[in-house]
Amino acid sequence: MTSERLPNILTPEQAAAYLQINRETVYRYIREGKLVASKLGRTYRIPRPSLDLLLWATRTRQDVTLREYTGDEINAFIQADQLDPAAQEIAQRFLAAPQRGRSHTTVEVSALPKPL
What we know:
By secondary structure, the chain is mainly α. It contains five helices and three strands. It has a three-stranded antiparallel sheet with strand order 1-3-2. Strand 2 and strand 3 form a beta hairpin.
């Protein structure tokens, strides 16, 4: 199972295949709290970042650290994530819309900004 085709949310079977371990080991990691999962009805769903965190937490070299970013790099990330005026307007309409018991709000596709 390659990373490009790996979904963001996995079943225990998919997670086991990705980690190359037995499915029962995945369930044991969930029970022990080593792997974060959501129980939906009778089944578990595992976010892909949880698998990456498990791999990181169980690494064999503790001297390897996560990359640290400079203040300038962080500011560049924040700047890149800024909404353009059209996206800000859509976000404001979404936040101001009455929810009326709905769990989601519909936005017309024509109102979305065109990709760059």
